[in-house]
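Title: Comparing notes on inverse folding

I've been comparing how different people in this forum approach sequence design from structure. To keep things fair, I'm posting one structure and asking everyone to reply with a full sequence. Here's the target:
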């Protein structure tokens, strides 16, 4: 099951579970659409994998399957790709 991480690893922007702006790689590294498109050219700086739109978990499923609260912020990893 996807972790639904709460923020962009580059800019630390909040990305709630219902956000259509979240992008993920196959390892679930999470970025906002602005960082993914502008700074990262659609590729994860950690694994070089493709960044795609994160699915939105139905709100009714969130109580039993909550999103992650662990914030990952690594702006240095993104700066190398600008």
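Reply #1:
Here's my take.
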């Amino acid at each position: 099951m996807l972790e639904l991480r709460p923020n962009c690893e580059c800019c630390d922007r909040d990305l709630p579970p219902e956000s259509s702006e979240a992008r993920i790689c196959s390892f679930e590294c999470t970025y906002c659409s602005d960082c993914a498109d502008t700074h990262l050219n659609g590729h994860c700086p950690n694994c070089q994998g493709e960044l795609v739109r994160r699915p939105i978990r139905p709100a009714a499923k969130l109580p039993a399957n909550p999103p992650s609260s662990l914030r990952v912020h690594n702006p240095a990893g993104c700066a190398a790709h600008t």
